[in-house]
Amino acid sequence: MPTSEPDALWPLSGATEPRTPSAVPSVVGVADLRATNAAAVLAVVRSADPHPRLSELVKATSLSRPTVEAIVEELVDRGLIEVAPTPSARGQRSPGRPARRFRFQPHAGFVVGVDVRPRSVTACLADLDGEPVTVERRAVRADVTGPARARAVTSAIRATLDRADVDASRVWAATLGTPGLVDRDNTRVRQADNLRTWTEVDVAGVLRDLLGCPVAVENDANLAALGEQWRGVGGTAGEAVPDPATGEMVFVLLGERLGSGVITGGRLLRGHHGAAGEIGFIRFSGGGPTDSPGLDPLPTGTVRDAAAADADAVAAVEAYGRRLAEGLAPVLLALDPALVVLGTGLFPDPALLPAAKTLLAAAQHHADGLLVDPPGWHLSALGDDAVLTGAVRFALSSVEVVLRTRPTSLNTPQPGPGQR
């Protein structure tokens, strides 16, 4: 990330960048102008299809040819773009050397996403296109202390770097997803009842020390919603236009704990304290004599039996779906989403998909009778990868700010022999 500005913007956090009012117009220096021009050239290289020639970059940016030539050489030197391979011209007569074409180099830098759960830690190293390079998982005990859990996180991250032969200095941003409440600035976990002493750990600081880059901490359900919006239900993979329903969406994270992430107006809704979507604090009907908040997960045996069409298990799953819908109804009335997506953490095995569909159908049918304008309901398309995908997306959002504004300020050490 930028060497002169250690603080990062996290555009997907739902926060707005503060602006200081001033009556004096801002002055654009030569360095700022050059950075802006470099960003314009890089944007064309990334978006053009096919890979653009120098003349096409000049035309698209309205910059002079000498200016574009100098910028291209700098971007090549920094590893952000490269000369694209020339297509084979066998059988064709060519009067001269073909003009060079340029393409973005997604391995110029990397981001790290982390998914922290009570019994596991998973880290993903991804390139600048958001494609996973390596993924490492560490099993942990549910009662492990916060410092020990943090060591598992750093161990998983180091393993992803080692497997990819990537130096930590080439990671430009990282995001850690975690259960619990996260502060508004995406820096600390302020409440995590199911993770022992986790709130006592400055995990963002630990990762900054390890990677030397901006680090964000975010609630796991929020990241799952972002991941689903990006590459899950209604995502743009294979589509020219994303599904507009994902601009107004509630993602319900089903697993050891209950949570949700809310997308409204296409952006993550975090609330004044960063606690929007904490449906695990709702007191659902039929909770028994303790009347404790949230919904305990369905027993594994019940899920398995329901997938096998056992009548009693199917009835239990349907009842669970109705309880979920009844508790969610006030939230859905207030938010009026177009889409509700159920995370499938309760159904990790594809063989359990019939049980997941049973729960979804029961919840949707019951909710439809409680709402004015019922939303559509879908199972997550990302399955167990929703949180990790969202963590990568969140980290990339910070890098994208720099690539769009001042790409030549990025640290771009060149890989050594054998490195990516």
Give the arrangement of secondary structure elements:
Layout: H1 30-47, H2 54-61, H3 65-77, E1 81-83, E2 102-104, E3 110-117, E4 120-127, E5 132-139, H4 146-164, E6 171-178, E7 181-182, E8 189-191, H5 203-211, E9 215-219, H6 220-231, E10 249-253, E11 259-264, E12 267-269, H7 300-307, H8 311-335, E13 339-342, H9 353-368, E14 376-379, H10 386-405
Parallel strand pairs: 3-6, 6-9, 10-13, 13-14
Antiparallel strand pairs: 1-2, 3-4, 4-5, 7-8, 10-11, 11-12
Helix pairs in contact: 1-3, 2-3, 6-10, 7-8, 7-9, 8-9
Strand residues, percent: 15-25%
Biggest pleated-sheet summary:
5 strands, mixed
Please tell me how large the radius of gyration is.
24 Å
The geometry reads as globular
Unreliable spans = 2-6, 16-22
Please provide a written account of the structure.
This protein has 420 residues and is of the alpha/beta class. Helix content is 35%, strand content 17%. It is built from ten helices and 14 strands. It has helices spanning 30-47, 54-61, 65-77, 146-164, 203-211, 220-231, 300-307, 311-335, 353-368, 386-405, and strands at residues 81-83, 102-104, 110-117, 120-127, 132-139, 171-178, 181-182, 189-191, 215-219, 249-253, 259-264, 267-269, 339-342, 376-379. The strands form four sheets. The protein has a five-stranded mixed β-sheet, with helices on both faces. It has a five-stranded mixed β-sheet with strand order 12-11-10-13-14, sandwiched between helices. Strand 4 (120-127) and strand 5 (132-139) form a beta hairpin. The longest helix is centred in the last third of the chain and has 25 residues, at 311-335.
